[in-house]
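Listing S7. Sequence submitted for prediction.
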Amino acid sequence: MSYAMVMSPCVICKAIFSYNPHKVPSIRRHHPDGKREPVCARCMREANDERARRGMPLLAIHPEAYNPIEEHEL
């Protein structure tokens, strides 16, 4: 069985990170046309820390968002 991960820069901090392309959190920060860009785990933690401080609901992060996927799922 083979596994795969996608690597690219985080749309927020620009750090290169690996992720499951089907489950990673993403935003339309620079693409109003609908293209979504991935957000790294660190930026998601920081966003959720800030949301918690403000009493806002936390953003959902799929538990497999930053794990490899089976190659055939690509």
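Caption to Listing S7: primary sequence and predicted structure tokens for the chain studied. Residues 41-53 form the longest helix (13 residues). Residues 3-73 form one domain.
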